[in-house]
Design brief:
It is built from 9 helices and 17 strands. It is globular and about 50 Å long. The protein has one domain: Acetylglutamate kinase-like (Carbamate kinase), CATH 3.40.1160.10. By secondary structure, it is of the alpha/beta class.
Length: 301
């Protein structure tokens, strides 16, 4: 099978953990173990989130002056995380060739998402600190779980610029790491030239587009929770092992976290592929339907 594995930013950096090299390397090692269990038997393409990382890079850049735009920081985080994944995955898949590819993703500059920033990036703050930073730095902030975070525009991915290269690498047997953080957001000018955009594309939406465009059989969206729950956060929350696409709107999933994952999984499942959400550590069992939540086409289970 050809499998796209999308690692959530919170799977690479646990909620509440400081973004240190040691913490990230430990979490990437855990991700590599999970990926290797799938890649040992299947062709794998890996994508990953970058919300915590790109937000910290933005803070570091701003501390030295005006800072770098988000498209450049997306590229920086793609290289950093891809390097760590390759370093941890290579010893677990001896003889397999790997490639990390900086991936430009075209968006529509008229996307209404630019008027409604929604993608959380950077550290978690309490409400008082978040509102202070918003006033000082000109940020938009919003609740994220029990804390608050900076939010930025998250336009829909339209086209992966390097899709032909990705297809070629996959056909040649490479384990490909690409479209990190949803890809580097670019738009096309009237002359046809590409230019960077101040945004962060949702990684799961890009992963679903990628999976479709390379003819993947399965899309695994891996995060730090066991799957999709009804009543998540409540005492009676229930894990849903199988969810018809038509029932997703009625679950009222968090638009800042599980909502986009379920929507991306639904988009891929409607095309006939396997789409599932669950814990990073359970990747092999999720693919087999023994863990996580599988999204299926239709309205009824």
């Amino acid at each position: 099978m050809r499998v796209v594995i999308a690692l959530g930013g919170n799977a690479l950096l646990r909620r509440g953990e400081p973004l240190t090299a040691e913490n990230q390397r430990r979490n990437v090692a855990a991700a590599a173990r999970a990926i290797a269990a799938v890649a040992a038997q299947h062709d794998v393409v890996i994508t990953h989130g970058n919300g915590p990382q790109v937000g910290l890079l933005a803070l570091q850049a701003a501390a030295g002056g005006d800072g770098w735009p988000l498209d450049v920081l997306n590229a920086e985080s793609e290289g950093m995380i891809g390097y760590l994944i390759e370093q941890e995955l290579s010893p677990r898949l001896p003889g397999r060739r790997m490639a990390t590819l900086l991936t430009l993703v075209e968006i529509d500059p008229a996307d209404p998402a630019f008027a409604r920033p929604s993608k959380p990036i950077g550290p978690v703050y309490d409400e008082t600190e978040a509102r202070h930073l918003a006033a000082v730095r000109g940020w938009t902030v919003a609740p994220d779980g029990k804390g608050w975070r900076r939010v930025v525009p998250s336009p829909a991915p339209v086209r992966l610029i390097e899709i032909a290269t990705i297809r070629h690498l996959v056909a040649e047997g490479f384990v490909v790491i690409c479209a990190g953080g949803g890809g580097i957001p670019v738009a096309r000018s009237v002359s046809g030239a590409l230019y960077g955009v101040e945004a962060v594309i949702d990684k799961d939406r890009t992963s679903a587009l990628l999976a479709r465009d390379i003819g993947a059989d399965a899309l695994l969206l891996l995060t730090d929770v066991a799957g999709v729950y009804s009543g998540f956060g409540d005492a009676g929350a229930e894990l849903l092992p199988q969810i018809p696409v038509g029932q997703i709107p009625g679950l009222a999933l968090d638009p800042g976290s599980m909502g986009p994952k379920a929507a991306a999984a639904a988009a891929f499942a409607q095309g006939g592929g396997i789409a599932a959400i669950g814990r990073m550590e359970d990747a092999a069992d999720i693919l087999l339907g023994r863990a996580g939540s599988r999204i299926i086409a239709g309205n009824n289970a």
